[in-house]
Structures are given as C-alpha cells and as structure tokens.
Amino acid sequence: MPFPQTRLRRLRATGALRGLVRETSLSASDFVYPMFVAHGIDRREPIEAMPAIDRLSIAHAVDEAKQAAELGIPAVLLFGLPAAKDEEGSGAWDDEGIVQLATRAIKEANPELIVITDLCLCEYTSHGHCGVIRSDGSVDNDATLDLLARTAVSQARAGADVIAPSDMMDGRVGALRQALDDDGRVDTPILAYSAKFASAFYGPFREAADSAPAFGDRRGYQMDPGNGDEAVRETRLDVEEGADIVMVKPALPYLDLIHRIKADTQMPLAAYNVSGEYAMVKAAATAGYLDERATVLEALTCIRRAGADIVITYHAKEAARWLQ
Ligand code: PBG
C-alpha cells in the first residue's frame, strides 16, 4: 500500500493502538456537574426540557453530589433557586441563602469534592436581570459590582472552593478579587465566565431557574455571538483583573473560541456545555434520532480537543458511567 496512513489501520481497529495514538483524552476527572438547589424538604422537581436534571432540596443535592464524587467527578457547580425574589436580588448574599446552605451541607458530607458557586443576581431578582436596574430599565454596572462582591464573600464564607461570576458586568473580576482578599480569602480562586455569549441555548436553564428577563434581553452585557475578537479581548481583561480559570460558554457552537482563547491566554480553560446543548441531545435521543452515548462522548471529546481543560456538563454523571 502506498499510503502510510493505511499501515496504522489494522492495529487501530483492534483497539489497543487507538488508545496509543489518540491525541485527546476524556475522563470523569475533566467534568464539573451543575446542580440546581432549592428550598424545601424532600423536594426533587423535574425540569421539563432537561430530562434527568432536577431541582433538588438540600438533602437530595448532598446525595447527588456524593454520587458525582463516587463517579470520579471532582467538582459540582451550584445554582440557587431562592424562596422569594426581589428587586435587588438580596437572596444572593444572604448568609442563610440557598446556595450558602447547600454549600455547607455538601462540603460537610463530601469534604474532598470541590464546590463551585455560580455568582449572579438573575436567579434572585424579580425582573430576572443580572444586575441593578436603573429607572430607564438599563442595568447599572457599577452599582451591581458591590452586590456581587457581597455575594462572593458570603459564598466563600459558606465554604465555596471556587467562585464563578456569570453576570458579565465589566470590572467584576477585579471587584471580587479585592473583596475576597479584604476578607482574608486570598486563596479562593475565581473561575470567570469570560466569553459568555447572549445565547438562545440558555433557554432550558431559564425555565429551571425561572430567570428569563421580564423585559428586554441580556444583549447589553452578554456577548454578540458574531464577535470572536471581542471575546478574546474580554477574556484578557478578566485575566488581568485576576481570573484564575477562564470560561467559554456555550461550548459546541463556540469551539473556535475555546481554541483561540486557550492559545491566547494559556490559562486553565473551562467550557460550559449548556442547558440547550443538553436538551437537544436528550430530545433527539428520546425520539430515537441519535445514539445518546456515542453523541455525548464525541461532543465532549471534541470540546476537550478544541482546548478545554474542564468541561461543565449536565451529562457529567452519565458520561462518567459510560467511561467506566
Ligand atoms: C446566570 C447563568 C445562566 C447560565 C449560567 N449562569 C443563564 C443566563 O445567563 O441567562 C446558563 C447555563 C445553562 O444554560 O446551562 N447568569
């Protein structure tokens, strides 16, 4: 055979060589499992567009976190569903708020598991925006920074190992770093949602968190899906302000940016395979149009190949089982 590639075929087909020449690895240790925590006793409430993902009261969240840890998943990412919402989003920085309570309970039961807390106001505000609203309906960036800083300190005090701001206000990484340092939490890292796009793929999440904006949209502060250079610039700013890990979100439609941002920043990089990406695969698999296992493992491998060190995915537990 004149084609050198062909020499590898037989060995690759037997399996053993495939592993040896494979460039990209995928394992449970790459995953972060996102969870929705809610008030209540013995509550486990399905989310329609996200089969197998539920809103969990604290005891159930502790169980789920333990299962994730047993599957070799090193970290969970917590989203809080407060009992009540208000104009400012005060549930976010309440020391007895839902994320704070869940963080304490999960850390107590699983001290080795890393708890990452999502930091945003949109799950807590009555209007569903990620910050303070001015009289003209726009978001007041700088006033929001103080509330985010209070929330970060409250989450860190509750035991969060990593703080993950997803609000997309300008200057928030610097403001959080300062507030955490002032509280003596110089060792608490920040995972910044740096290149977070104004995406239709967050639809199922907003149903889960009841956080769709009551008016307008998030295009003022989230990024335009058409803008790649801007995403690189925004991420550089987060790194300058002190981000320890950067993120690209969503993942699959933005693989080019995972690649570019990894090359540009040389920082640890997380990619968020978001709710809509999960819902698409689940829907197609349920209809019998796709083989879920093969599709998910391929997609997650490709997110890693593009340059992600960390993959945040609602498929984490299922994928970890498939990889065993
Ligand atoms: C909060 C936040 C959102 C997501 C993560 N953090 C929603 C949004 O910005 O509207 C989306 C995650 C997902 O879709 O899985 N700002």
Give a quick precis of the structure.
This protein has 324 residues and is of the alpha/beta class.
What does this entry look like structurally?
There is one protein chain. With 324 residues, the protein is of the alpha/beta class. It has a single domain, classed as Alpha-Beta Barrel (TIM Barrel), CATH 3.20.20. The protein contains twelve helices and twelve strands. It is globular and about 70 Å long. The site of ligand PBG has 10 residues, from helix 7.
Question: Features of this protein?
Answer:
TIM Barrel, two-stranded antiparallel sheet, 40% helix, 12 helices, 324 residues
Write the layout of secondary structure elements.
Blueprint: H1 9-13, H2 16-21, E1 31-38, E2 44-46, E3 54-56, H3 58-70, E4 75-81, H4 98-109, E5 114-119, E6 132-133, E7 139-140, H5 141-157, E8 162-165, H6 172-182, E9 191-196, H7 203-209, H8 228-241, E10 245-249, H9 255-265, E11 269-273, H10 275-286, H11 292-306, E12 310-313, H12 316-323
Parallel strand pairs: 1-3, 1-4, 1-12, 4-5, 5-8, 9-10, 10-11, 11-12
Antiparallel strand pairs: 2-3, 6-7
This protein binds ligand PBG.
Task: List SSEs in N-to-C order.
Answer: HHEEEHEHEEEHEHEHHEHEHHEH
Q: Show unreliable segments.
A: none
> Helix count?
12
Question: Beta fraction of the residues?
Answer: 15-25%
Mean pLDDT, rounded to whole units? 95
- The CATH architecture designation is Alpha-Beta Barrel
Helix share, percent? 40-55%
Instruction: Report the count of strand segments.
Output: 12
CATH topology: TIM Barrel
Number of domains: 1
Q: Could you name the CATH homologous superfamily?
A: Aldolase class I
Compute the CA-based radius of gyration.
20 Å
CATH class designation: Alpha Beta
- Coarse morphology: globular
The biggest sheet, with number of strands, parallel, antiparallel or mixed sense and barrel status, is: 10 strands, mixed
Identify the bound ligands.
Answer: ligand PBG
